[in-house]
Amino acid sequence: MSAPPVEHTPWIVRTLQQVRDAVDEIAASSPSRLFLVVLFLVISVFTALLSLPAASVKHTVTPLHDALFTATSAVTVTGLTTVNSGEHWSLFGLIVIMVAMFIGGLGVITLASILAMAVSRRLGVRGKLLAQQSMNTNESGRLGEVGTLLRIIITTTTLIQMGLAVILIPAYWFEDRDLGDAVFHGLFYAVSAFNNGGFVSHANGLVGYEHNLLITMTVMVGVFIGSLGFPVLMVILTCRHHVKRWSLHAKLTVVVSIILCFAGAVVLGALEWDNPRTIGEFSFGDKILYSLFGSVMTRSGGFSVVDQNELNPTSMLITDALMFAGGGSVSTAGGIKVTTIAVLFLAIAAEAKGHSDVRAFGRRIPEGAMRVALSVVVLAATLVTIGCALLLWITKEPLDRVLFETISAFATCGLSVGLSAELPPSGKYILAALMYAGRLGTITLAASLAARQRDQRFHYPEERPIIG
Predict the structure, then answer these.
(1) Is the distance from CB of 103 to CB of 75 less than 8 angstroms?
(2) Phi and psi of 33, rounded to 5°?
(3) How many Å apart are CA 221 and CA 160, to the nearest integer?
(4) In this structure, which long-range contacts are made by residues 40-48, counting pairs with CB atoms below 8 Å and at least 24 apart in sequence?
(5) Cα separation, 310 vs 306, whole angstroms
(6) Which residue, among 402, 367, 397, 368, has the nearest Cα to 384 in the 3D structure?
(7) DSSP letters along 143-163, please?
(8) pLDDT tens across 73-99, in order?
């Protein structure tokens, strides 16, 4: 009789398989809880790293509220800071922040993709097919079998960031003639731009480099690409210029993103054209460029070459609206997402025309998607209102400054009027909570609502209330 076969599987492989099975179990039972727990654990790890004396230039322990705030901002790829990043953090600290942005951006895309796959398992055959088309993934195996998806996401996002760094490194070398600094700053801004992080490694940020078109344009393009979202990038890479083959999600995301970018540039440029404290002293070409640059950054980029405090009140209100809108779904951008805006405006247009169906690009949008979009907007507005009210109560600051900082935190944008650094510890914890809620709130809410959609076997009698 032959002996039983010997298990030759290495222990590390068995460990990874056990981790995979655990992820599969948690994701299948409660994918939203998986996102919440993982995000909290990652923030905790980077808070501990940034609290180390080696992370600061003075080699002193950074206070917990500042370390937690910075770690939350980096992992949620927001960009708000309570200290000057280029002056307070050492090289080690800046590397920690860069890694946090990379992991945070990658984790947001990955976990959001897992949530989308989890939802697709509960939507029936038609729902699965639509989810596969929009995600451009093949859900032939278990939910926990995310190896292929992870490889695609990691490879695609890393290659894009390396491409940005290849452009930025020579640009910084030509400016400063220091190869070591050029390599570090090029990598840092490439990661920060694509992940919509908004963090800077210079004491003055991009100020001083605003006339270097290679740097500013590369950062702006990186932010825009990152704000589109992984499903859109995969559709574009797969179908390229064959727009007819794009999914509805990709079409809506690209179209609305372009509209918001150029509309925002026109409005902000017109409002600030003669403002000597912002772009009023720039040349005609620079005014055009930085109007577009500012518009792109308001929707989650967080970089700026002007002082946000110097914007006129109308420009600040428009910036609030663009930050609240945000970027694409399953992306590193924040806000309520451009597809949410598209669905709501399409519903308004359909109602105005008397159409019973909401249609776009030859497709009908189901009523469930409109309910989810409305829920996301209401949740976002509620959280912003609560956060703004708490900060007003704590600081007694003007409403325009508090509202700007609150929306920037919730929408994980990173533009700031300097209020974050002026807040007491309690205010910093509130903004950190808003960044955390803003990063996972809309994603988990949309996923949980979509997952709960099911066919009803009966309907109550219909009665229409008076609206408006």
Answers:
(1) yes
(2) -65, -35
(3) 11
(4) 40/436, 42/75, 42/100, 42/103, 42/104, 42/107, 43/68, 43/71, 43/72, 43/75, 43/76, 43/436, 44/71, 46/71, 46/74, 46/75, 46/96, 46/100, 47/71, 47/72
(5) 8
(6) 402
(7) TT--HHHHHHHHHHHHHHHHH
(8) 999 888 899 998 888 999 999 999 999
Record the pTM. Answer: 0.83
Assess contact for 207 and 293: CB atoms under 8 A: no
pLDDT band at 108 (very low <50, low <70, confident <90, very high): low
For residue 242, the tally of other CB atoms under 10 A from its CB is 9
Q: How far is CA 272 from CA 123, 205, 304, in A?
A: 48, 21, 14
**CA 142, 144, 148, 153 torsion: positive or negative?**
positive
Distance CA(323)–CA(298), nearest Å, equals 5
Spatial distance between the Cα atoms of 313 and 391, rounded to a whole number of angstroms: 20
Element spanning 101, H or E: helix 91-120
DSSP 326: -
Count CB neighbours of 84 within 10 A.
14
Identify which of 311, 312, 304, 255 has the alpha carbon closest to the alpha carbon of residue 413: 304
Per the document, the length of the chain is: 468
> 205 — alpha (psi -120 to 50), left (phi > 0) or beta?
left
User: How far are the Cα atoms of 83, 200, 302 from residue 203, in angstroms, in the given order?
Assistant: 10, 8, 15
Percentage, residues of the chain above pLDDT 90: 34
Q: Tell me: the pLDDT tens digits for 308-343? A: 888 899 999 999 999 999 888 877 888 888 988 999
* Dist. CA 106–CA 86, nearest whole Å: 24
Helix residue ranges, H only, 122-209:
124-135, 147-176, 179-194
Q: What is the DSSP letter of 54?
A: G
Beta bridge partners of 359: 364
Partnered with residue 364 across adjacent β-strands are: 359
Closest to 333 measured CA to CA, from 241, 240, 408 = 408
